[in-house]
């Protein structure tokens, strides 16, 4: 068959764009840029009627490691160095995992006489600059932690009222990332507290990724875009099917607010922490990937089993998360625990996850009308977990038979014009 005329291709793309934009019910304003110099669409760009933080960071969702969900406070400089070593030796860094981030419990319980945060003398005797230097020497990036409050249970002082001093310290240690948590806020609003640290970071001469972590209590998706590179939309995830699915659903509600420079964050990955099944962890990773959520591992990557490594190193799934178009995928169909999630990618492709949340196996069908494709569009199908292309082309719908309980199938659909 001869190629379709350019105008027909353009009409198909326009229908796709309009269909997709109808999902964006929280968008305050839109602009769909469809034409390149040759008059053909190469991507759909959605302007959400608000500004993203323009610090040049977070153009795709952040990837890396934060050990809180596995180690909690049992972290020291030797462990951090070993994690950095493992990220390189396993090849995870080549897939995009780049941040090695500390969480709570790294500091002494009191500031010094000049008001500075002091790294724990027992856990980090070499100091934070030496830890950062080691991580940077591996070609990775170093993340630090504080919170927008005064104090909390572990005893580490917060940064509320000391934002400029602490931001200067983080920059002097060559930190690349700040997770900014939400404890003991002295009755000050989230917006004010998180803006103060944003302003402090803007004064230092080092670009620092700013992760707003207010647990979603003040709907940060609606206001954190101009000040942070990501924002938590949920309470802390737990290592359970119920918690993971709940956080996915809560994060889905804010899909239209995410994009290059700022991302919805449903919390860390529990993959590899041993309480869910392999297929439940595969579901977890797939949904986080299509939602353009941060991919921050929180297991002991020094001692991963084969299943954990296979999930965390799924290059084709990661490519969906890191796609340059930067549009968060959404749940577009749900019927009794049988769900279709979908999102547009560059080059007019569509990522699709078929997710069986029932307790028994089932067939799941994605209909073109639900995923934003015109009904006559013909696509090729790439199975991202099986690493193979389906032999036929499809139009109108796609059915995956007998998906096991709590399992997913994940695909990229690519329109064909031949």
List keywords for this structure.
19 strands; disordered N terminus; seven-stranded antiparallel sheet; 418 residues; alpha/beta; globular; single chain; eight-stranded parallel sheet
Question: What structural category arises from helix and sheet content?
Answer: alpha/beta
The general outline is globular
- Helix run count: 11
Please count the beta strands (DSSP E, at least 2 residues each): 19
Rg for CA atoms:
22 Å
CA-to-CA gap between the ends? Answer: 6 Å
Strand percentage, roughly?
A: 15-25%
Helix fraction bin: 25-40%
- Low-pLDDT sequence parts: 1-49
Give the mean pLDDT: 89
**How would you sum up the major sheet?**
8 strands, parallel
Task: Write the H/E string, N to C.
Answer: HEEEHHEHEHEHEEHEHEHHEEEEHEEEEE
User: Strand arrangement, largest sheet?
Assistant: 9-8-7-6-5-4-3-10
How would you characterize the overall build of this protein?
This protein has 418 residues and is α/β, with parallel strands linked by helices. It is 26% helix and 21% strand. It has eleven helices and 19 strands. An eight-stranded parallel sheet has the order 9-8-7-6-5-4-3-10. Strands 11, 12, 13, 15, 16, 17 and 19 form a seven-stranded antiparallel sheet that branches. A two-stranded antiparallel sheet has the order 1-2. The protein is globular, with a radius of gyration of 22 Å. The chain starts with 5 loop residues before the first helix and ends with a strand.
């Amino acid at each position: 068959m001869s190629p379709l005329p350019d105008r027909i291709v353009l009409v198909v793309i326009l229908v796709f764009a309009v269909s997709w934009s109808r999902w964006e019910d929280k968008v305050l304003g839109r602009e769909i840029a469809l034409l390149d110099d040759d008059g053909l669409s190469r991507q759909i760009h959605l302007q959400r009627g608000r500004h993203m933080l323009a610090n040049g960071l977070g153009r795709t969702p952040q990837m890396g490691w934060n050990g809180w969900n596995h180690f909690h406070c049992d972290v020291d400089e030797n462990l951090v160095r070993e994690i950095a070593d493992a990220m390189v030796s396993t090849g995870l860094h080549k897939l995009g995992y780049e941040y090695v981030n500390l969480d709570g419990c790294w500091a002494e319980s009191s500031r010094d006489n000049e008001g500075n945060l002091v790294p724990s003398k027992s856990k980090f005797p070499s100091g934070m600059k030496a830890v950062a230097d080691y991580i940077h020497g591996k070609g990775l990036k170093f993340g630090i932690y504080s919170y927008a409050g005064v104090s909390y249970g572990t005893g580490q002082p917060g940064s509320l009222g000391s934002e400029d001093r602490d931001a200067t310290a983080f920059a002097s240690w060559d930190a690349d990332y700040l997770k900014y948590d939400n404890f003991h806020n002295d009755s000050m609003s989230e917006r004010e507290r998180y803006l103060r640290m944003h302003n402090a970071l803007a004064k230092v001469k080092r670009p620092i990724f700013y992760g707003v972590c207010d647990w979603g209590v003040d709907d940060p998706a609606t206001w954190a875009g101009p000040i942070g590179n990501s924002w938590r939309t949920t309470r802390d995830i737990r290592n359970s099917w119920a918690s993971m699915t709940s956080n996915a659903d809560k994060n889905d509600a804010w899909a239209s607010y995410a994009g290059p420079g700022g991302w919805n964050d449903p919390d860390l990955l529990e993959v590899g922490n041993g309480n869910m099944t392999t297929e439940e962890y595969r579901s977890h990773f797939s949904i986080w990937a299509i939602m353009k959520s941060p991919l921050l591992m929180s297991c002991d990557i020094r001692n991963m089993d084969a299943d954990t490594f296979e999930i965390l190193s799924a290059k084709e799934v990661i490519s969906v998360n890191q796609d340059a178009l930067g549009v968060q995928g959404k749940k577009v169909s749900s019927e009794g625990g049988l769900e279709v999630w979908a999102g547009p990618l560059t080059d007019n492709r569509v990522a699709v996850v078929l997710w069986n949340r029932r307790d028994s196996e089932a067939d799941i069908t994605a209909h073109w009308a639900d995923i934003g494709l015109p009904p006559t569009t013909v696509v090729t199908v790439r199975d991202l977990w099986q690493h193979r292309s389906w032999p036929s082309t499809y139009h109108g719908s796609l059915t995956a038979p007998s998906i096991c309980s709590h399992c997913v199938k994940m695909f990229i659909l690519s329109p064909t014009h031949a």
